[in-house]
Amino acid sequence: MQFIFGTSLAKSMISLNNELLVRSLVAMPNNLSITRFQQLCEIPSRTTAKELLFYLVNSGIGKLSDDSVTFSQSDKLGTILLAMREGNDPHELSKKLRWQDFEIFASILMESFGYTFERNVVLSRPRVQIDVIGFYQKTALLIDCKHWMRIYDFNIAKFSLNQIKRASVFLDKRKEIDAAIPIILTLHEYSCNFFEKIPIVPISKFKEFLQNFPFYLDRLYSIQRK
Q1: Strand extents, DSSP E, the chain
Q2: To pair with 189 at 20 to 30 A between CA atoms, which of 32, 45, 59, 106?
Q3: CA pair distance 109, 138, nearest whole angstrom
């Protein structure tokens, strides 16, 4: 399906009304007609609905086919990140996410770079729950997803210590793994990249982190098997 609307016009329209990006979240994930998309997003004009879809698709979000559009699980978080770049408040946007959306997106990114992964891992005696684990050879990246909470100086020590404990338990249970690295993944930006060598990675930079991870292993807090 082709639109006659230009990219510059779409960008102009979106910049004037960022609320449309937020409205589009109610349609994700889904496979639906353009008419249904317009209804769910409560957009009076079909032309405006098409412009919004055109903008999203050109931003790598969703797929258009004939008179329908398909949004995947990862498209919802992709729209959140796009809305953040357009100036919407991250704290308010995070309320639109379920914790599953955030974890699924992290898993998809890891898989795209060749990592295997496990999600929502629960260990017993002692009981710990790990949001997402990525595997790089015999090294495990243990990720604590903080999509709904801002990271501040006063709580980063608590989050980091808890993730170190989870990593230690995991390494003790999984004998095939040689090292475990605790990581904090957040929707919000944080002023520091590391806390005591534990990486604090905003989701907007997670792709870059995964690309470069092998090159700065020496900078990361790593629990080694004895």
Answers
A1: 30-33, 63-65, 68-71, 116-123, 128-136, 139-146, 179-186, 194-195, 198-202, 223-224
A2: 59
A3: 19
Which two tokens mark 203?
């989701």
Separation between Cα atoms, residue 223 and residue 208, nearest integer Å: 23
pTM of the model: 0.70
Local structure of 106: helix, strand or coil: helix
Looking up tokens 């990006």 gives 21
> Over 70: is that where the pLDDT of 140 sits?
yes
| Contacts of range 42-47, beta carbons closer than 8 Å, 24 or more positions apart | 47/5
Parallel, antiparallel, or unpaired: how do β-strands 223-224 and 63-65 relate?
A: unpaired
What mean pLDDT is predicted for residues 97-121?
85
CA angle 209, 214, 218 (to 5 degrees): 100
Residue 77 CA neighbour count, 13 Å, CB half: 23
The three-state secondary structure class of 193 is: coil
The answer to whether 180 and 168 have CB atoms below 8 angstroms apart is yes
